[in-house]
Design brief:
The complex is a heterodimer of chains A (about 110) and B (about 300). Chain A has about 110 residues and is mostly helical. In chain A, about 65% of the residues lie in helices and about 0% in strands. Chain A contains five helices and no strands. In chain A, helix 2 runs antiparallel to helix 3 and helix 2 packs across helix 4. The N and C termini of chain A lie far apart (about 50 Å). Chain B is an alpha/beta fold. Chain B contains twelve helices and eight strands. Chain B has an eight-stranded mixed β-sheet. Classes of the chains: A mainly alpha (about 110), B alpha/beta (about 300). At the A-B interface, helix 3 of A face helix 7 of B.
């Protein structure tokens, strides 16, 4: 399986635009704008990024956003806290679905 | 593009000194520590150390020329036997003195009174503290170093260093713990200030953020991890012409432990002496020839011009 994820492939992201440059250009503009400092600082945005990267389990994103966190002066302590926040929300999102199970039990029980 | 070509393209000529107000002196590579990022390969086993005759010549040059500041570095400059006479001699000559200290030296034998010596000579201290959290510092500088550094900073604070009510200046130095550039100096200084104050009640005047030069131990790390070309490319891509007025080589003359003259401490480590036609040893010192000299550059110089610059 490991052959599916090569670090150097991250540098080939632009290849994705080869077969539909217009859509890829739109994505890149959106992506770049979303990451620019606004009401949130760059530091806050890359912390969100590293948390999301772990939840979606994207090795490219984890690599990229971990480096961004370091470049913004953060350490493994900051990254770990962000990953816990994202993971806790993900865990909670699973757990809240237990209510669906409760509902299903109610619907199917006398 | 080579750094020299970049400079020529940027300002239609080579990089020139802008009058030297600082005499920076590396008094030797001996150190009580062996940090992973050290550009001089400092350590307890290093034997390169400035001798007394050269140290006396440094004081003569300082006194006889319009330098405002003596900036002492190493290794751990405190380990040079001439260290105290250099500091007190410079103060007697009316010059400001900066010492770049590793902090842990304060706890070495024979250094018990060094904080008071600093205070009594109004020495400005620029202290290495690569991060405000312990695990990160110990990873770069060795186990237990963070704790000692904190104890040293508290001791210096107790003497008035770094506090608002005192003229005793205390700067801290951050450097990235790997192959990335430093963050915004302003934002990181705020984080240092908050964390060090809340955790330990420590105060300081200013944070300096520096870029790791791809030389010395850091270059070995880059080579070992097959990252040297990537890092060089990162520095080159981050070239910022706005940094050119402030790069240190334009404002100082660097003296090596053996008396040779350089444009900066990094060139010293690489053996790149001052350009042809200007003095290359303190024995032949000529202030005016050096004050407007052409700076000797190479591709490591991208480290000082990347992003916000390396102060």
């Amino acid at each position: 399986m490991t052959e599916y994820y090569q670090a150097e492939d991250l540098d080939r992201f632009g290849d994705v635009g080869r077969h539909n440059p217009a859509l890829f250009k739109k994505f890149m503009e959106w992506y770049t704008s979303a990451l620019e400092p606004g009401m949130l600082t760059k530091r806050e945005k890359v912390l969100i990024g590293v948390g999301v990267a772990h939840v979606i389990q994207c090795p490219y994103c984890i690599d990229a956003y971990t480096k961004s966190c370091l470049e913004e002066g953060m350490s493994l302590e900051h990254i770990t806290e962000a990953v816990h926040v994202a993971s806790a929300i993900r865990g909670g999102a699973s757990l809240i679905h237990a209510v669906q199970a409760h509902n299903a039990v109610d619907r199917n029980s006398i | 593009m080579k750094f020299s070509e970049r400079i020529t393209a940027e300002q239609a000529g080579p990089l020139k000194a802008l009058g030297s107000k600082i005499l920076q002196v590396n008094v030797g590579y001996r150190c009580n520590m062996s940090c992973k990022h050290c550009h001089v390969h400092g350590g307890p086993d290093r034997r390169e150390i400035m001798d007394e005759v050269t140290a006396e010549r440094v004081l003569q040059v300082l006194s006889n020329n319009p330098f405002e500041t003596l900036d002492l570095t190493g290794g751990a400059p405190e380990l040079n036997p001439s260290f105290r006479s250099l500091v007190s001699g410079a103060r007697k000559a009316g010059r400001h003195v900066i010492v770049r200290t590793n902090l842990t030296i304060l706890f070495e034998k024979g250094m018990e009174d060094i904080p008071e010596f600093y205070r009594d000579n109004a020495v400005e201290l620029i202290a290495s503290l690569p991060y405000y959290l312990g695990e990160t510092v110990d990873r770069v500088r060795g186990s237990g170093v963070y704790r000692k550094s904190i104890d040293a900073l508290r001791r210096l604070n107790s003497l008035g260093y770094g506090t608002a009510a005192s003229a005793l200046r205390l700067g801290l130095v951050y450097n990235p713990q790997g192959m990335f550039l430093a963050p915004s100096q302003c934002a990181l200084e705020a984080a240092y200030r908050k964390e060090l104050a809340e955790r330990f009640g420590i105060a300081f005047n200013r944070l300096y953020t520096i870029t790791n030069m791809p030389i010395g131990r850091f270059k070995e790390f880059l080579t070992r991890t097959n990252s040297l070309a990537n890092y060089q490319e990162k520095l080159s891509a981050a070239f910022n012409p706005a940094t050119l007025d402030g790069v240190m080589c334009r404002h100082l003359v660097s003296v090596g432990w053996d008396g040779r003259l350089f444009d900066c401490d990094f060139n010293q480590v690489l053996g790149i002496t001052t350009s042809p036609g200007v003095p290359r040893h303190i024995k032949e010192f000529d202030y005016h020839a050096l004050a407007e000299r052409t700076i000797a550059v190479d591709d490591h110089c991208y480290g000082c011009t990347a992003g916000q610059g390396s102060s």
